[in-house]
Amino acid sequence: MNRVTVSDLNAIIARLNRVCGTPQEPYAPDADGRLRANIGNWHLSRAYGGFGLHRMVTDGGGVSDPFGHHMPARELLNRISAYLRGFEDARRAA
After folding, report:
1. The pLDDT value given to residue 91
2. What is the C-alpha to C-alpha distance for residues 1 and 76, in angstroms, rounded to an integer?
3. Which of 1, 2, 4, 52 lies most in the core, judged by the most C-beta atoms within 10 Å?
4. Residue 63 falls inside a structural domain
5. Cβ atoms < 10 Å from Cβ of 47
6. For the chain, how many structural domains are there in total?
């Protein structure tokens, strides 16, 4: 089994953003040049010796965590893969 890297996690999160039609970057400059959160963006969080999936929910940078905690890279990759399959299956069924 190959090691799961940060690049692997970022790639699957980019795919999740494409499938959901959400911005790829968590922050973007506004008209005044200040950074503002891109609501809806999915991005990688690193803390507590593990990795998490966060979704931007407020323009001030507040996030939600669909899995509730940080975990090893492989576990997060597997969970995001399952999450993506759910989105894609729902889209095909519609």
Report:
1. 84
2. 15
3. 52
4. yes
5. 9
6. 1
Tens digit of pLDDT for each residue in 43-82? 999 998 999 999 999 988 999 999 999 999 999 999 999 9
Cβ–Cβ < 8 Å for 84, 66: no
By DSSP bridging, strand 35-37 and strand 42-47 are: unpaired
Q: Is residue 94 part of a domain?
A: no
Residue 56's DSSP bridge partners are 63
pTM of the model: 0.90
Which residue reads 């929910």 in tokens?
57
Question: Token pair of 9, please?
Answer: 């996690």
| 59: containing domain | 1-69
Cα(26)–Cα(92) distance, integer angstroms: 28
